[in-house]
Each structure stands twice: as structure tokens, then as C-alpha cells.
Design a protein that fits this description.
Blueprint lengths: L2 H9 L4 E3 L5 E3 L2 H10 L6 H17 L6 E4 L5 E8 L4 E8 L13 E3 L4 E7 L4 E8 L2 E10 L5 E11 L3 E13 L6 H4 L4 E6 L15 H13 L4 E4 L41 H7 L2 H12 L5 H22 L7 H41 L19 H9 L1 H27 L5 E6 L3 E2 L3 H5 L9 E4 L9 E6 L3 H6 L3 H11 L4 E4 L7 E5 L9 E4 L2 H14 L3 E4 L9 H7 L4 E4 L20 E4 L8 H5 L2 H8 L6 H24 L18 H12 L5 E5 H4 L33 H13 L3
Parallel strand pairs: 3-11, 12-13, 12-24, 13-14, 14-18, 18-21, 22-23, 23-24
Antiparallel strand pairs: 1-2, 4-9, 5-7, 5-10, 6-7, 8-9, 10-11, 15-17, 16-17, 16-19, 19-20
């Protein structure tokens, strides 16, 4: 194997993969070379040799692993340490416990409870040797160091070793994570099979919103859904995009996965909205009202128009807050309001600390440079001295633009308040799960997460997917991947932060493209989507991190395991306590017949469709095939023709499956030719899925309203109105729609609370 191939193998790149169509696809040297370069490796022979030697030898030359995960369910714990083979060595260790944990040290270990530390020491000669190796002139031994039994959490292990109890020979530290095997279970949330809705929050029309769905609309949906006995409401990712580039609209291409998109704020619910006269005057002005009416009436969400409406008013409210928060001359009621706001805002900033400060700094820098040059989008276009978040230039900017940075903190505070209120509402309404949020698979390379943690991300590379049934040309999602080696070095904290940021509001979290946490498909800079290479991630560790955060937050986890996944993958995530994802359109035998729903696993979510697939109406009427043909998403005409011809038989197979379970009245069945949708089919399909053992059934609002257009077509940006379409019915009128009321009635029979 050549040096490029050897380094690629050590790092974790796959030599090949088996495609959806059964073909074996080999990674090219060109792709491996480009991706290794993007990861920061120098590619001359001398550098390659040095990198290979370092990576092969580091298990011996470093005392501790970069991170250690202890399996919580095991009775005994140990960690591998590596030391030079020298007589007379003594090892001293201590574990710094995570705050707010209660741990009982095992026998022969001492705990300093005041400092939350457990410590011990041992002669190295008493440790069990498990392996030996010679590197150069040094002989190394790997030993097993027994660890105490601790509660789940994120601790730190520090070790030092001495010769003859005197001379310090070396020291090291590593994160020590005690993590459970399985996630918080859906069965704990409810013993009964559950159902709920999924919705694209931005798509809501209502009498009150300003042109896109907001958190008050979500509150209304929660209120009525809870009355209908729904267990959950699933949403598109609520991650922040770009305040100063609202046209960047894909919720799966966020600036960060650790904060909230402030466009979902209901401005009228900000505490000082009613008492800020400037805001009231502007909102009630004829010009504002005309703009508001235009935004509300638009068939598609006009994100720039909505952003202008909202942020113009929020800026007035922030200025009003800054002026009045310390004004002791205000009337008592007003003074109390502003003092309460100031106290809660300060608490929020203190809680989120430097992470929030850095995020707000990024947004302020983005605004500053974009205002100076409208063609500047993202940190890679900024002057070099601002591309490093720790630079002196950035620190000076934070001082000179402190108020503006505080404004972006204010946006996050309001968003957090409003989403937290809805989350609490779901608990008050006794919804078994409550909010079901969505974690995007990655971040946009121009955004905050990549800017703030450049050592963790692989700039230039992109996450994607190989050719499959959904897209025969493969997909390049334009998302910057995390370096799996750096992720471990960071003790998995980038993943932990992303999980916590969503789980704090959610009773369930869907992890988009969860296969990407086991192996990820990377597209090299300048190469096509079907030329990607898979790279392995530390999957077993990651599953435990997910389980730990799931249990801490009492949050059910769903793994979106669609597409080209290896055999046994779905069973693996189910065994870890995650729910796998079953979509009606994909649950068919090789013959084309639909699988009976009683074959679906209990540990799963079942649904008709996702945001990336056709709705039931669109599928029945062939709207998805029309789009594929129009957008030239087929590799050749023959493939498109075969798809169109097979759809007729697929419709027949669906009707046969529904009839087999006697969930459809054949006298009311829809026309096959021409293919005309009707409500009988909508209800029948939901009844069909309700029979399954799947613990949770999700009903897309688009299907309940029998909408033909799908939310997103993968592989497209502007060719299709992705993430733009509004629902055709006002939120307030959902419940007068026959298809919606009939489906609710059917669910309460098939899956009672």
C-alpha cells in the first residue's frame, strides 16, 4: 500500500463501499489525497511518513488515550495507560468529578469531597501488563489501571508517574466519561403506542404571524394537538441561520447547532412590546402595515421581508430596554417590568457564558463586514485578523461593539424564552413527549460553529450521500464535516453541546442522517457528489454520548436511518435505545409489495413521508416523478421511464396492502387511472401504519392537509421552492379540514392515549 493509502486507512477512510444498486465503488487516490490535505496533512513523502509513524505509535508514546468512556453498566472499570518499562515507577492519579454528581469511591480509593476529587497511587509493578512494544530504543508497556465506580457524567482523569517516589517522569490528562448503554426510552415516556404531527414551523399561515410561522403559532398547535390526544409535535431544525443573510433558508445548513433561529420569535410577545411607544408607532404606521400585509399574503415565505419586519421592531425594543432597565423614575409597573427583564437577561448571559458571547460576536462581525461589502458572506471572506476568534482584532471589536454584541445576545434570550415557554406548555398539557426537535447532520462552512472551532472541522470537504434511490447522482450537502480524530481529542464536547442545545427543549430528538455518526460520506473539494469517500467515526463511543445526554434530559432519540445503510445498522441503534425510522414508501419487499406493518419493529417511528420525499398526494399523482424529470435528476432517460412505468404498479400494490388489512373502503378507493387523490386514501394509510408495533406514529401536516408538493427535493437549491412553501390553510382553520378531523378520529381509535 502506498503512503497515501496507508495514511488514509489509519485515519479511517474506507477503501470501498457497496452502493444501493449492489455495485462496489472504490475510493480514488485523487479523492483520498484531496481529503487528507483538507484534514491538514502535508502530503510530501517525508511528512506522510512522519504522520503515519505518529498515528501508529501514539498508543504507546502517549500515557493516556485522548478520551476514555467507561461502560456504566459494568461492575468493574479500567483504563489502559502506556509507560516506559522502567523499574521503580510509582503512579499517582486523581479524578476530578463533574459538578453536581454524587459518587461513592470504591475500596482503596480516597475522596476529597470538599474538592470533589477522588485520588490514589500505586506502584507500577503492581499493575497488569497487557502489551509491550519497542519504539526506537525505548521499551513501552501498556497497563490496566483500575478505576472507581462513578455515576454517569463527564469527569477528568489526571495521572503522574515518578521514579523512586521522587523525580517526576511525566503526566497526562484525559476526559473520563461514564456513560450508559441505552437512551431514555419511548416506553418510559408512555406505555401506550403514541402518535403526533410533524410540521415545518416556518410554513404556518395564521391570523397573527408576520409572514412565517413563529413560536406563538407553535403554542396554538400544541394547545389543540394536546386536546386531540397527540403525544408530540415534530419540527424542522430550529438552529440559527444568518440574521444578516435571511435568504439562506435551509434549516439543515445552519450557522450553528447550539443556538436558536431568532426569526421564529413572535415580536408581539416580547415583554416591552406594548409599552415601547416607538415600536407601537412603527408597527401601526401605514407603511409597516402594508409591508406586513404583503408578507402575510405571499404564497411563499419571503424571508428577507419577514426579517426586516421583525428585526426593525426588535432593535427598537432592545434600545428601549437598554434605556429603561436602570431608569428608577419610571412608574412602578414599568420599572418592575424592565428590572425583571434585566435580571433574566443577565442570568441568561451568565448561564451560557463565553459560548453565547462568541456566537453574538460572530453575528456582529458578520453584520459589520456584510454592511461594508454586500458580497461578503461568512467568516472566510473577512480580513485574516478576524478569522481567528481569539485574535487581538476580535477582542478589540468586542470592546468597540459591545452594545451591538449585546443585541445579538438579546435575540437569543428572547428566542430561548419563547421556545422554553412552549416546551413547558407541552408538559403542562401532559403530552407524553412534547416537542420533537431535529438535529442537523452538520453546519454551513461559513457559519459560527466552524469559525469558532476550526481545529475540529475539515474546511473544504463536504458531507453528502452516495447515489441511491432518492438521488441517482449522489448528493453534496455543502456542510463542513467534523474531523473524527479532533472530535475525540475534544472529548466529544462539540457533539455534547449540540445535543444539549436541542434536548433542553425537547421530549424527543431526531438525529438527521445518524449513519453519519458511524461513517460519513465526504466529497472532496472540486469533485462530484458520486466521487465521495466514506470515513469511520468512533461509533460505539458516540452512541454512549447520545445515551448519556438522552437520559440526562429525559429525551427520546430517533435515528434517521434511511438510504444506503449497512446491514444490521437499524438493529444496532434500536439496541442502544434509539428509535429507528420507518417510512411507508421505503418499506417494500424486492418484489415491490408493501411490507405488512406488523413487521415493523416496536423500537421505531413510522410515518408516510419525510421532508425529503413526496407527500402521499404527490406520490399518488406522480408529482415527484414530474419534478425529477424536469430537474434532470435521472442519470438517463431510461431510468426515468422505468420510474414512471412502475408507479402504476406501486399504486396497485398500495391499495392491495390497504385492502388486505381492511383499512380502506374499496367502494371509496381513489381512481388509479387517472391517479386522483382522495381523503379515503389519506385515512386508510394512517390506519395501516397505526396497526404497526412502532411505538410512535408521525403524521406530516402536509399529508393531513393532502398537499401535493413536497417540502424539499434533495440535490436542488433554487430549482424547486425548497423551505419556502406555506401551508394553504390558516392554522386556525386546520381543524375544520375534513381530512384532518377524520385522521384525528382514526388515531384516537387506533392509538388511544
Amino acid at each position: 500500500m502506498d503512503l497515501i493509502g496507508k495514511l488514509a486507512d489509519i485515519v479511517g477512510f474506507h477503501e470501498s463501499y457497496t452502493g444501493t444498486f449492489g455495485d462496489k465503488v472504490f475510493a480514488t487516490d485523487e479523492a483520498k489525497r484531496a481529503l487528507l490535505n483538507a484534514m491538514g496533512f502535508d502530503l510530501d513523502d517525508e511528512s506522510l511518513t512522519e504522520s503515519i509513524n505518529y498515528l501508529e505509535q501514539r498508543q504507546w508514546t502517549t500515557i493516556l488515550p485522548v478520551v476514555h468512556i467507561a461502560k456504566l453498566e459494568e461492575q468493574e472499570h479500567a483504563i489502559t495507560i502506556s509507560l516506559p518499562k522502567v523499574d521503580g515507577l510509582q503512579l499517582v492519579w486523581q479524578i476530578v468529578l463533574e459538578e453536581d454528581t454524587e459518587n461513592v469511591p470504591s475500596k482503596n480509593h480516597n475522596q476529597n469531597r470538599a474538592d470533589n476529587i477522588i485520588e490514589g497511587k500505586i506502584n507500577v509493578s503492581e499493575l497488569l501488563i497487557i502489551a509491550e512494544a519497542s519504539i526506537g530504543e525505548t521499551q513501552y508497556c501498556q497497563y490496566l489501571l483500575n478505576l472507581p465506580t462513578l455515576t454517569q457524567g463527564y469527569h477528568q482523569l489526571d495521572v503522574s508517574f515518578f521514579k523512586n517516589n521522587d523525580s517526576l517522569q511525566g503526566s497526562a490528562s484525559c476526559p473520563l466519561i461514564y456513560a450508559p448503554k441505552t437512551c431514555y426510552s419511548a416506553q418510559t415516556a408512555s406505555n401506550n403506542k403514541m402518535w403526533g404531527y410533524t410540521a415545518q414551523l416556518y410554513s404556518f399561515r395564521s391570523n397573527d404571524n408576520w409572514g412565517m410561522g413563529d413560536f406563538s403559532d407553535l403554542s396554538k398547535l400544541v394547545d389543540i394537538s394536546a386536546q386531540q390526544q397527540a403525544a408530540t409535535i415534530g419540527l424542522n431544525p430550529l438552529h440559527p441561520l444568518y440574521v444578516n443573510n435571511p435568504a439562506h433558508r435551509s434549516p439543515y445548513s445552519p450557522s450553528s447547532r447550539c443556538f436558536i433561529n431568532p426569526l421564529y420569535i413572535d415580536v408581539t410577545q416580547i415583554a416591552n412590546f406594548k409599552c415601547c411607544q416607538l415600536a407601537q408607532d412603527k408597527v401601526n404606521s401605514p407603511l409597516f402595515q402594508r409591508s406586513l400585509a404583503d408578507s402575510q399574503a405571499a404564497d411563499l415565505v419571503d424571508y428577507p421581508a419577514v426579517a426586516k419586519l421583525k428585526y426593525d421592531i426588535v432593535e427598537l425594543l432592545f434600545a428601549d430596554f437598554c434605556v429603561n432597565k436602570a431608569d428608577m423614575a419610571l412608574p412602578a409597573n414599568s420599572a418592575t417590568l424592565y428590572q425583571t427583564m434585566a435580571s433574566e437577561f443577565a442570568q441568561f448571559k451568565n448561564k451560557l457564558g463565553n459560548d453565547l458571547q462568541q456566537f453574538a460576536t460572530f453575528d456582529a462581525l458578520y453584520e459589520y463586514f456584510h454592511n461594508n461589502d454586500e458580497n461578503v458572506f461568512g467568516w472566510t471572506d473577512w480580513p485574516a485578523e478576524y478569522q481567528n476568534p481569539s485574535s487581538e482584532a476580535v477582542r478589540e471589536f468586542q470592546i468597540s461593539h459591545a452594545t451591538r454584541i449585546d443585541y445579538f445576545c438579546f435575540l437569543q434570550w428572547i428566542a430561548d424564552q419563547q421556545l422554553s415557554t412552549v416546551s413547558q406548555q407541552t408538559r403542562d398539557k401532559n403530552m407524553a413527549i412534547g416537542l420533537y426537535l431535529d438535529l442537523a447532520v452538520g453546519c454551513d462552512g461559513s457559519g459560527f460553529d466552524v469559525w469558532s472551532e476550526q481545529d475540529v472541522y475539515v474546511a473544504g470537504a463536504s458531507i453528502g450521500a452516495p447515489p441511491d434511490d432518492m438521488n441517482a447522482l449522489g448528493q453534496n450537502w455543502g456542510l463542513t464535516p467534523i474531523n473524527p480524530v479532533a472530535l475525540q481529542t475534544q472529548g466529544y464536547q462539540p457533539l455534547v453541546k449540540a445535543l444539549r442545545a436541542s434536548m433542553q427543549y425537547a421530549g424527543a430528538l431526531r438525529i438527521d442522517h445518524i449513519l453519519g455518526l458511524m461513517r460519513q460520506y465526504w466529497v472532496a473539494p472540486g469533485m462530484e457528489a458520486d466521487e465521495g469517500v466514506y470515513i469511520s467515526f468512533p461509533w460505539d463511543d458516540i452512541l454512549r454520548i447520545i445515551a448519556l445526554e438522552s437520559r440526562r434530559n429525559n429525551c427520546v432519540v430517533i435515528g434517521e436511518d434511511l438510504g444506503n445503510v449497512p446491514d444490521g445498522f437499524s438493529e444496532t441503534i434500536q439496541n442502544a435505545g434509539l428509535l429507528s425510522f420507518k417510512v411507508l414508501f421505503f418499506e417494500r419487499w424486492d418484489s415491490g409489495l408493501f411490507k405488512r406493518p406488523d413487521t415493523f419493529p416496536e423500537q421505531s417511528v413510522v410515518t408516510i413521508a419525510t421532508h425529503d420525499t413526496a407527500t402521499l398526494t404527490g406520490w399518488w399523482q406522480g408529482r415527484d416523478l414530474e419534478w425529477r424529470q424536469q430537474l434532470e435528476l435521472y442519470p438517463n432517460e431510461e431510468t426515468g421511464l422505468a420510474d414512471r412505468n412502475s408507479r402504476t404498479f406501486e399504486r396497485e400494490n398500495l391499495i392491495a396492502a390497504l385492502n388486505d388489512l381492511q383499512v380502506i373502503d374499496m367502494n371509496k378507493a381513489p381512481s388509479l387511472s387517472p391517479a386522483l387523490m382522495n381523503t379515503e386514501l389519506s385515512i386508510a394509510v394512517q390506519k395501516y401504519l397505526a396497526v404497526s408495533p412502532s411505538h410512535l406514529q408521525l403524521i406530516p401536516i402536509e399529508d393531513a392537509l393532502e398537499i401535493a408538493e413536497q417540502v424539499n427535493i434533495p440535490g436542488t437549491i433554487d430549482q424547486h421552492p425548497n423551505w419556502l412553501q406555506k401551508l394553504p390553510v390558516l392554522l386556525e382553520d386546520f381543524w375544520q379540514t375534513n381530512s384532518m378531523t377524520d385522521i384525528v378520529r382514526a388515531m384516537n381509535v387506533a392509538r388511544p392515549k
